[in-house]
Amino acid sequence: MNKINFPRVTRQICLQLSTMALLLILITNLAAWTQAAVLTDGHRIDCEHFDEKNCTIEGDCAIKTEHCKAESDKTSSCYVLWTMDNATGETKIKMKGCFTDMHECNQTECVTSVEPRSNKLYFCCCKGSMCNSAHKWIPTTTEATTQVPKEKTTDNTNMIYVVVCAVVFVFLALLLTPFAFCYYRKRKPTNFNEIPTNETEATNATPLLNNRPIHLLELKASGRFGDVWQGKLHSQDVAVKIFRMQEKESWNTEVEIYKLPRMRHPNILEFLGCEKHTEKIQLEYWLISVYHPNGSLCNYLKSHTLSWLELCKIAESMSQGLMHLHEEIPASKTDGLKPSIAHRDFKSTNVLLKGDLTACIADFGLAMVFQPGKSCGETHGQVGTRRYMAPEVLEGAINFNRDAFLRIDVYACGLVLWEMVSRCTAVGPVGDYMLPFEAELGLRPTVDEIQDTVVAKKLRPRILNTWRTHAGLSVFCDTMEECWDHDAEARLSSSCVMERFAQLCKYTATPLLIENNTNCEEERLTSNCL
């Protein structure tokens, strides 16, 4: 009688399993490809598009048509985000457009019965071209509910589903026994200790915060990327930046910036964690940081003036934060390399003030990381806030290297310094707070107006003659002018700006005129971007 060679039998079973599994994968991929083709051809839709931020900031209030991108693994839908006055029933649209993140939008009308949260925002989504031209909220207590018809699938799609299900069922039946045999012989315990680092791996409660509850208390600000709330994490006050679902890339960029080696710094906003929240069909991305009651430098200057000592403290700490951001720090035995980072949206609203009036830099949604030996690429258009854009950005004449992007930050830093000096009482009473170029162009200048002022006329915010009579403020004026120089290569580096203010702040009681550092005058940034 022949003996059975069990290891050989095992290998044969596993070989057969591998062959059948390969066939299953090929058939499944073919079916998925066919389904994707049907979706691409038959489910491409248009949606009404509107963003309140474009209306209030840029004056673009028109409702436009958005062509939704077809994706093989997602269904294109339309959505509307609005608020409603419960007393009058009046609604106000916040945003509308294409929506591809969820699969629950199986209705042809934009209707919701979900109660809004503390932010009072209503959300609905629907399938079908321009189906978000109308929207409504139907409370769950309403007796007469509206039956929303579901979109009918095509015969081709139904046939695909039938074929795929039949094929999968047959192969699963054939593979079940040998697969289980091989799997349990070879399986290893799964490591669940890894912390997700990118958005696609994040869960509804990211382990970074260990599922600790955060309570939103008060809306503090609204911006391009979302809203900023004061919140409570146990007994600690925190700031919660909530990104809209369309801005998940900015959320992911900020998280990755904060996780870089040696990013912790007294003058960089302290990052606590991030979460991806899904409530019903509303998807939000949260970034949690330390809360600073003084808020942004911009808001602080609107209601406060600065003494000479306060001006020095804010300027020195802000320049220290910008220098740390720009600086490349080599790797050590305990820490990895900290790459050079360009902020690309530096302005007074992105500088926060701590309780002691030292500054910290925040908002890295547009930041760019320069890894040594890697190309910067050539796909970087006009980003940032137009009022703070450097001449080369407005002209579209950026050199795509690290130096160029760092000098753009320095230009904006010069404008922020002007905002601070304009509210300093060292030489007497001051006027109301104004943004850079507000006196010349008003609150909502167009790109063309900014280009004409900054590029064609080469104008900068006005430096008062009285500022030059104060020895310390005169140093500020010189530094401003060297930061916003029209020639990008003639601008100071952030490290030189920091050195000047560090030296100046030694003379806080009786400010003296500080001679310009020769090294700073001759300094030129060294590029590590190949």
What does this molecule look like?
Helix 6 packs antiparallel against helix 13, helix 8 runs antiparallel to helix 12 and helix 12 (471-483) packs antiparallel against helix 13 (494-504). It is built from 14 helices and 16 strands. It has 530 residues and is an alpha+beta fold. It is globular, with a radius of gyration of 29 Å. Helices cover 35% and strands 18% of the residues. The protein folds into three domains: 46-137, Ribbon (CD59), CATH 2.10.60.10; 202-290, Phosphorylase Kinase, domain 1 (2-Layer Sandwich), CATH 3.30.200; 297-522, Transferase(Phosphotransferase) domain 1 (Transferase(Phosphotransferase), domain 1). The chain has a five-stranded antiparallel β-sheet. A five-stranded antiparallel β-sheet has the order 8-9-10-12-11, covered by helices on one side. Its cofactor is Mg(2+); Mn(2+). Residues 214-513 form the Protein kinase domain. Keywords: ATP-binding, Disulfide bond, Kinase, Magnesium, Manganese, Membrane, Metal-binding, Nucleotide-binding, Receptor, Serine/threonine-protein kinase, Signal, Transferase, Transmembrane, Transmembrane helix. Its main location: membrane.
